[in-house]
């Protein structure tokens, strides 16, 4: 496994954040056997301007063909590679309440480059339960399990008070990237990536558009 | 209820998408009794440049004070108003599997301007079950219930095959904004907003950063 110089090419974080969105549209198009997509159409599906799309994709070395656009399958493969999703990343989920259960059986993970290989919860009523091929284990097993299975990505779906200690256990066990669904801010050492998912963000964006349509004055901005 | 001219001020979609992120940071700061935040600090918490932050907030008429920054509580209130979250929007969730249950008991919704007022599922083993103050009803009740409770925002957490018919029922009942967790693309009439949540997007972004740190060559981009 040698480091590749192309890896060092800097892709801006904002571009990285849009790549999964482009990939989702491309996957849908591929399922419909669409062979080519214009930059305008692909950009519109994600809500950016086509100039932005072309700039984003230029970071991957993808430039499309004038008058034809991008080849759907090729571009999907390029984005999949750029995101590192040719790996089939082993993922652990900690916290097997309703959200943990929902995530463990979320088919989107499987089809998009991830394998759920370990599940943890300290509730004795959950330990031992099987979801698909995986049995829920107590979180005391995190260290042994993470090393054995080479887990790099951990998902935290515990209540807020448990999240930091779970995070510490994951990091101590070699996990380098954490997706945090718990409503709490996690402290991690340098070099560990944490992304926090707040399920209310999307509702808030919808509320903005809903109030504008309804013309509600109580939602207006009062300039200072 | 009169339309207010300030409502017509165009706020770009990309700005709207960042407002909940700014609000999340401001809420955390307010909880810690922090009175002021610099544009640099607030921008960094969301991963944008401070020039972008200032431009975003200028759409709300918020300009901050040079050398002092933004007053945390005032700015939080302005964003809350801009997003229309002073309403306490009544929300319905359809599909009460694990994800629906997780969403129904998600405390983040309650604190952020939303009230879950109706839950629907067609599984007889779920109908009648209470989550908090709300009983799960059969989806045949969507129309009556949505009108009675003035529901404007619907959350779809059903399996993919049921999502379109649920969406149609919600729209026919006056719902104007839909948050779709089902892995399917919904057709809606003009004027209805749909946002699709794909829980794998955040994992894909993490995978990108993880592969770069690990220096995996299989994740590199092969320029054409």
Brief write-up:
The structure is a homodimer of 224-residue chains. Chain A has nine helices and nine strands. Chain A is α/β, with parallel strands linked by helices and 224 residues long.
Ordered list of secondary-structure elements with their pairings:
2 copies of one chain form a homodimer.
Chain A: H1 13-31, E1 36-37, H2 39-46, H3 50-58, E2 70-71, H4 72-82, E3 89-94, H5 98-104, H6 107-111, E4 114-120, E5 130-131, E6 134-137, H7 142-149, E7 153-156, H8 160-172, E8 177-180, E9 193-196, H9 200-214
Parallel strand pairs in A: 3-4, 3-7, 4-6, 7-8, 8-9
Antiparallel strand pairs in A: 1-2, 5-6
Description:
Two copies of one chain form a homodimer. Chain A has helices spanning 13-31, 39-46, 50-58, 72-82, 98-104, 107-111, 142-149, 160-172, 200-214; strands spanning 36-37, 70-71, 89-94, 114-120, 130-131, 134-137, 153-156, 177-180, 193-196. The first copy, chain A, has 224 residues and is an alpha/beta fold. Chain A folds into two domains: 5-82, Arc Repressor Mutant, subunit A, CATH 1.10.10; 89-200, NAD(P)-binding Rossmann-like Domain (Rossmann fold), CATH 3.40.50.720. In chain A, the strands form two sheets. A seven-stranded mixed beta sheet of chain A has the order 5-6-4-3-7-8-9, with helices on both faces. In chain A, strands 1-2 form a two-stranded antiparallel sheet. In chain A, helix 2 packs across helix 3. The longest helix of chain A is centred in the first third of the chain and has 19 residues, at 13-31. The termini of chain A are far apart. Residues 1-8 and 217-224 of chain A have low confidence and may be disordered. At the A-B interface, helix 1, helix 4, helix 5, helix 6 and strand 8 of A face helix 1, helix 4, helix 5, helix 6 and strand 8 of B.
